[in-house]
Description:
Helix content: under 10%
CATH class of the largest domain: Mainly Beta
CATH superfamily of the largest domain: TonB-dependent receptor, beta-barrel domain
Radius of gyration: 27 Å
CATH topology of the largest domain: Maltoporin, Chain A
Shape: globular
Number of domains: 2
Number of strands: 42
Amino acid sequence: MKIINQILLKYTLLLGVFFFALTTQAQQNxxxxxxxxxxxxxxxxxxxxxxxxxTKLAAVTNEDGxxxxxxVKPGNYTLQLSLSGYETVVEEVSVNENTTxxxxxxxKVSNKELQEVIVTSxxxxxxxxxxxxxxxxxxxxxxxxxxxxxINSKIIEQQVLTNFDDALKSAAGVVSGNSEPGVRSxxxxxxxxxxxFFRDGKMLGNWTENDMANxxxxxxxxxxxxxxxxxxxxxxxGGVINRITKKPYETFxxxxxxxxxxxxxxxxxxxxxxPLSADGAFLGRVNAAYxxxxxxQDYGWAESYxxxxxxxxxxxxxxxxxxxxxxxxxxxxxxxxxxxxxxxNVDELNxxxxxxxxxxxxxxxxxxxxxxxxxxxxxxxxxTSTTSFGHSYSLYNPNYVMASVTGQTVERAIGTARYDIxxxxxxxxxxxxxxxxxxRNRLLVGxxxxxxxEIYVGSSAAYDTFQYTSIAPxxxxxxxxxxxxxxxxxxxxxxxxxxxxxxxxxLDILPQLHLMTSLRYEYSKDVTPSATVPxxxxxxxxxxxxxxxxxxxxxxxxxxxxxxxxxNYLGGNKNINSFLRNDGTGNGVMQKADPEKATQWEVGFKxxxxxxxxxxxxxxxxxxxxxxxRMDPANQLFSLQDGTxxxxxxxxxxxxxxxxxxxxxxxxxxxxATFLNGSDAGKHVAYTPKNTVNYWISYTAKQGTVKGxxxxxxxxxxxxxxxxxxxxxxxxxxxxxxxxxxxxxxRYRFAIKADNMTNEIYWGDFFNPQSPRTFKxxxxxxx
Length: 783
């Protein structure tokens, strides 16, 4: 895998050199036109079509209302701007050699189309959630029977979000906070533990932290999602977290951002975009980040590097190719794996909340690389083909500490491990948009292949015992290595191949009545090497298994594009290889398992009213999981595959902009997640609080001398929950308050953010201590 990383690094450097050379050439012996377009109420106007008459040059403004023409021959030109709902703007402009002509233009509302105008760009609204990834087809939110949340660029910017755990708290019903620096983000969706493994709709299992530098949106797709996204060895019952990356656009632009804050936090990011050919067919964009921080605990630090080049090439009017890569590396000190005996509430461990029981010498190293290619070919006006390839590699190489606390006594153990994890995915799907009679069909047909290749090695050892009321004996790298060297290492691994075929069709029975019918068949082949025989597989842990996954939905738009009622029936599955069961005589025998399955039914409504100033979603869902493994009550050494779990609840999500500059976001979820049988019957699923709330309110001045000045305030609340399914240890509820003050102009943005303002001491799952109050200051320069 080192060879692969070296090749990918060389490839990135070569593309960077090429990118620089073309950019330099484009700046010689010609001029530039660079401008800003605003709406009639002075908001940035995105998606404005701009034509330089008398040439072949055209552009579209980005989300900040910026546009640029490069390599323009000196002379006088006419610039024409057009956007639906606004009057066409015509502007005369002169271009001189080796100079940039600046422009500041404003659109005027067309009286004829006044009622149809959306005052601000959808991409700049917190409520914006249109996506081609959720349904893998162009399907509007109000037409989609599945519920999803989108944490978009405006939410990320206003709340100064730099990590996934914090970002995911902005989605209704999501319980986040069980990861640590360097470890992949993990969250609970509708009571199920899910990971952010999907990137632009592709399963690219990044087992390290996901850097936010190249993230445009985060999609949280709710409910069992096996039909379109597959089982992939993980349940996906609560939903799918899909990272949408930043793509190149038609004009030169970008930004540099620096953030500094509490506990030595420093982060520098850069985002540079430019056309790489005169005709705009070849575009390039690079995002990069560097971060260094200390821990709120007595020991701990992290340092990371990230680079993500992306390129698009419009080979013809029909073929578009998108190439992306990213490289991430982090090194630092890992928080301890804690456990506690004799406690009934995790708060009893508050005295050790800020103790790490490790030192800055005991380090982890984690790295990842991703490479993907998409080819989108327009077969005709009605049909489009998409071919995708993706590969990801993750290295997880921790040295770590485990601390078991009983009273004031700490029993400390140490460990080391190395995980090498490769994912390779190939997707081919075709989208069609056609009519049968008067009924519109939007059809998706596709096949997927996914390979998951994993190798593990590691060891652990008991180390020492002490009282946490005194200073812990210092743990040096030398003594750590000596203790590990005396242990016996374990090894493991597996290779999993998955083959899938699926279809999904949305039939417009009436213009306002949409019926979705979908089905996937997934075949899984899992091979686990033998621990005793070289080049052989372990027959008890290797298996072949297939499963069907359905998805049905019905949507009726009571008011076209404003209010819809929906219902859905979704499926998901998880492959289980084998389990040890009682043969009836008290002896154990390996039993091939059936796939674990989940089904959900859900009803609710979605609305987008008052020219998108009020967006509301409310739903009730009921998820049932069958074929779960549970302990055999007659003998704890054996298992039964008849476990059942039910998660049901209510979700509400609201976005409102009652006046210009005022944005309100509110999410609420009520969840009841319980086991229906076995020794845990009637008990709650671990880390599933009954009530969760997220909210954010911000106001930005749109006029006057303080135009661009804003303030934001919000918080996250979650009820108490349990540390395990035995329900014997409680995690207390918590209400976190956050606030920000910012000042934004066309070329820069300054913000100050405070998180956990009341300095709450609280815990995540697995005895995971969470951060106290922090402050951050952010400065962004745009160009």
